[in-house]
Amino acid sequence: MFLLKLIGFLALFRSSYQQFPRACATAEALLSKECCPVWDGDASVCGESSRRGSCQDVSVTDAADGPQFPHSNVDDREKWPLVFYNRTCQCVGNFMGYNCGDCKFGFFGPNCDERRESIRRSIFQLTTAEKNKFIAYLNLAKNTVSTDYVIATGTYIQMNNGSTPMFRNISVYDLFVWMHYYASRDTLLGGSNNVWRDIDFAHEAPAFLPWHRVFLLLWEQGIRKLTGDQNFTVPYWDWRDAQDCDVCTDEYLGGRHPTNPNILSPASFFSSWQVICTKSEEYNRLETLCNGTGEGPILRNPGNHDRIRTPRLPTSAEVEFCLSLTEYETEPMDKFANMSFRNTLEGFADPSDGMANRARSTLHNSLHIFMNGSMSQVQGSANDPIFVLHHVFVDSIFEQWLRRHQPLGAVYPAANAPIGHNHGYHMVPFIPLYRNGDFFLSSRELGYDYAYLLEPGQRFLEEFLAPYLDQARQIWQWLLAAGILGALVAAILVLSVVLTCRKRKRTRSSYEERQPLLHDSNESQNLNYQTTL
To answer: Torsion over CA of 177, 181, 184 and 187, rounded to 10 degrees?
Structure first.
């Protein structure tokens, strides 16, 4: 009941984040190849009147790509975003966004001049109210149409090179599902099932960790904009040494259905969710893109997976070995890389020796396999809300490695990585634009940290005291009102006692003035007694 009321209240808010800005999904914008929308704050392009940014030519890297993708000029994602736009808003200072109307990560306030560090905590350390709010936010995002962004339902060629736009509305949550799909989809080469599968702009190469870091930051920022809750942080699930899916309960992200183990319990909010972008083979056959249409319920059957490929969930020892690897990336910078921290954490290399192993799915990949459902297919894996909690924890491991080894920015590959993964490549399909190498740095510089990585004193404050202080902040008006009411009641009681005491004192004093001296006669004693009575 509480969640239903909270969702109803939050439905008053409307906002979102990412992909093709609605203002740029027109024939005029596509034909001119310019995506420089007006910022409503001052009614100028890119907020230029307020010195937030300006419309500039897009500069793309000319560094050589690796040999994994032998084609050129056949995929809209090549040299992103030049196929669609060659001019976009370039923001300055602490401003960010497709129209420079947002703040850079870690900055808040109307002028983006309030620096703040947000702390991400374990979902099991959230109070009941915080956990319920998180679930309510997820449901709100799933059921709220984005007012800022749309998704492309066709390629640029299918849009007649921009003259016939093909875009569609999408919910805030599904927008991020679609983005994950779009970054990892196959290349359509023309003709039914004529595709190139060995391509992925977000996985199996160096950008895996920076790409998902930006994805999560945008997801977090999108929820803040949608709900108006600027204190929101996305929680994580620490799955080290877990024996089962601890978050797979109706209290959290959905338990198992009592009669069909492949779907969620009807008692869970998530049982009514429809997945999108899960039919990659059908899209390839029809030479089309995912259009955001519902394709059935979330599938999940944790533990009933291929135990030869993934014997169990990751252990603390495996994570620690991964963290000990000193090289972020090694040749050939894909899923066959040996002794690569990225490849080992992603799960294509064995976490006991760092050697690539095509027969095993470990660490990050093992969670996807273990869930045995929607999470297990790369393109549609973000449909399951567990995806977010899982990747937040993966990001925390990336953060541990950065702090332990403190690599220079030059460690991130500048050239010869698979297409889309070089240092200067713009991440697909984000607009505004972000470069891979710009996010190869500590989370603290991006305005967030993890509770379990804090110093002991800070950790105690964040993990144990902060939830209750946050609850107190949320109900401080009620506490203040209760305190004032209590003070008033106490004052009235004290005043009543004081007045009563004074009245009794005056009565006694008046009686003593009227009372005659006592005599020895019985008559006098009886009179006095009767008078007193």
So the answer is: -160
Phi and psi torsions of 219, nearest 5°: -60, -45
Which residues is 381 bridged to in the sheet? none
Considering only CA atoms, which of 240, 223, 243 is closest in space to residue 232? 223
Q: Are 125 and 451 in contact (CB under 8 A)?
A: yes
d(CA 471, CA 385): 25
Q: Which two tokens stand for residue 78?
A: 């090549």
**Per-residue confidence band for 417, with pLDDT thresholds at 50, 70 and 90:** very high
Cα(345)–Cα(1) distance, integer angstroms:
40
The residue with tokens 């995002």 is 141
The DSSP symbol for 358 reads T
Long-range contacts of residues 469-477, Cβ cutoff 8 Å, at least 24 apart = 470/127, 470/130, 470/231, 471/127, 471/129, 471/130, 474/129
CB-based contact 66:336 (threshold 8 Å): no
CB–CB of 360/367 below 8 Å? no
Q: Give the per-residue SS3 of 266-322.
A: CCCHHHHCECCCCCHHHHHHHCCCCCCCCCCECECCCCCCCCCCCCCCCCHHHHHHH
CB 156 within 8 A of CB 76: yes
Q: Which two tokens stand for residue 401?
A: 């490695």
Nearest to 15 by CA among 198, 167, 218: 218
> What pLDDT digit, counting tens, does each position of 428-444 carry?
999 999 999 999 999 99
For 88, 514, 517, 527, 529, the CA distances from 520, given in Å and listed in that order, are: 113, 19, 10, 12, 13
Q: Higher-confidence residue: 493 or 56? A: 56
**466 CB-near residues (< 8 Å, 6+ apart):** 119, 121
Residues 197-254: tens digit of each pLDDT: 999 999 999 999 999 999 999 999 999 999 999 999 999 999 999 999 999 999 999 9
* Type of residue numbered 372: N
C-alpha dist (Å) from residue 40 to 22, 33, 134, 386, 518: 14, 22, 30, 36, 95
The residue to which tokens 């259905």 are assigned = 257
Give the pair of three-digit tokens for residue 283.
């899209």
Query: How far apart (Å, rounded) are the C-alpha atoms in residues 375 and 239?
Result: 15
Q: Measure the CA–CA gap between 149 and 139, rounded to whole angstroms.
A: 19
- Give the least confident one: 273-282, 288-297, 375-384, 452-461: 452-461
Instruction: Identify the CA nearest to 382 among candidates 189, 181, 246.
Output: 181
* Contact call for residues 170 and 41 (beta carbons, < 8 A): no
Could you tell me whether strands 102-103 and 448-450 are parallel, antiparallel, or unpaired per DSSP bridges?
unpaired
Which of helix, strand or coil describes residue 362?
coil
